[in-house]
Design a protein that fits this description.
Elements lengths: L2 H12 L8 E7 L2 E8 L12 H17 L5 E12 L6 E11 L4 E9 L5 E15 L4 H7 L2
Antiparallel strand pairs: 1-2, 2-4, 3-6, 4-5, 5-6
GO molecular function: hydrolase activity
InterPro entries: Acyl-CoA_thioesterase_PaaI, HotDog_dom_sf, PAAI_dom, Thioestr_dom
Organism: Sphingoaurantiacus capsulatus
Length: 148
């Protein structure tokens, strides 16, 4: 993997929101990402399964990092995200896999799927991402790995 990919992983790990979740990002190739995540009762809704915000976060992050793995100069932003929740999730390890679909200049499209510990798909998402004006090298966690 490239230094850019390692720097994106460091950026994910440094984001304050990710300190609230037990998750790890790996950029597994150009346009590919994988997030492993633990579901615990603190993330449940009133009926005892993971709240939909957990699905959204994991699916959006996986698609986002798949897209940003192809953009080495700027941070990308989610501009739209469609979500399909197919099964309830209870405690255990989930994996979100992200994959770039199209676009590399200004707008990128990526998709993601969420897999439970039994290997069943429990959610799916598709996002549109756009280059921002935020230079990746201006972000301390990213720059620490790149050396910028």
């Amino acid at each position: 993997m490239t230094a850019h990919h390692r720097a994106l992983e460091a950026l994910y790990a440094a984001a304050p929101i990710n300190h609230k979740f037990n998750s790890q990002l790996a950029i597994t190739g150009e346009g590919l990402s994988r997030i492993e995540f633990d579901i615990t009762p603190e993330l449940f809704h009133g009926a005892g399964a993971a709240h939909g915000t957990v699905y959204f976060k994991m699916l959006d992050d996986a698609a986002f990092y798949a897209a940003n793995s192809l953009v080495e100069d700027m941070f990308v932003l989610t501009t739209a995200f469609n979500l399909l929740l197919t099964r309830p999730v209870h405690e255990g390890r989930l994996i979100a896999e992200g994959r770039w679909v199209s676009g590399t200049r200004r707008v990128l499209i990526a998709e993601s799927r969420l897999i439970d510990a039994e290997g069943e798909e429990v959610g799916r998402g598709t996002g549109t991402f756009m280059r921002s004006r935020i230079e990746l090298n201006s972000l301390p966690a990213y720059a620490a790995v790149i050396g910028g």
